[in-house]
């Protein structure tokens, strides 16, 4: 592999901070893009709360995810937490009102579910880079990412049944797909915490590395992915989703087929014929066996 493609560089990513996204300043998160490389990094920046998220945190992450999706220079997105003690400790229990998580507009909402779907539908790989705790909704966020690289100090688990919450959506179904039905029931029913090594063995994450090499190793995975065909990655992610996401998954996969078809002479013949007010001539296009 190395002879054909060359060694994957291990140097540190030089990050460029982006403080304002879609005309609004970021408060709860940091957003960075690598100088000269197609990597974006979104960091939940509430370490004093173990990076627990409130509605504003989620809104900001979603805004940056949209920016990264729309930026043609970006091919991979890292989601992480500030500091070494936590990736994310789930929903901020201090802003959980009588009816749910409450933002400045006083409206209770669970917008983290929208973020889960956004990560799922993102046509570029999203990599969770986990140091410390990934618990509750934080563990679900790392599960929704395509790949998870964890530091050896990482701790995973659900606390829902202890703190009066649960995720009966992807938080349950995706977990069962990753670790199997029996293990998923154990994780949710007992609400225990698991080491990075245990998480690796049960298929919850992809790799465990020493804490001081976490970003270096994550960058290597990103650079390896970035060498590959963006269209192949995009369609593969849609295909892996489609088998499990029902009509929504098929829509995503079907959308990719249309995207590619629009770029073919055959697809363009129909458009041109309409604009030129003539019947389309599809006779020159092959009927592949
Ligand atoms: C993470 C833990 C284990 C870390 O323990 P440690 O290192 O001993 O630190 P602490 O002293 O406990 O914490 C330091 C400070 O951080 C505050 N803090 C930590 N976590 C939270 C949090 N989640 N909300 C608010 N504050 C938090 C501590 O209070 C402390 O502050 P001070 O020093 O001022 O006292 C440990 O902290 C822990 O167990 N945390 C709570 C984990 C938890 O229960 N999280 C919530 C779980 N529930 C959800 O996430 C629901 C998620 C949700 O929104 C959802 C709902 C339905 C469907 C889907 C979802 C979804 O998320 O996907």
TrEMBL record:
Any Pfam family the entry gives: ECH_1
Membrane-spanning parts: none
Keyword presence, Ribonucleoprotein: no
Known catalytic reactions: 2-succinylbenzoyl-CoA + H(+) = 1,4-dihydroxy-2-naphthoyl-CoA + H2O
Organism superkingdom: Eukaryota
Record key words, sorted: Lyase
SUPFAM superfamilies the UniProt entry points to: ClpP/crotonase
Entry keyword tRNA-binding: no
Gene3D superfamilies given in the database record: 2-enoyl-CoA Hydratase, Chain A, domain 1, Lyase 2-enoyl-coa Hydratase, Chain A, domain 2
UniProt record similarity statement: Belongs to the enoyl-CoA hydratase/isomerase family.
Name used for this protein in its record: G3253 protein
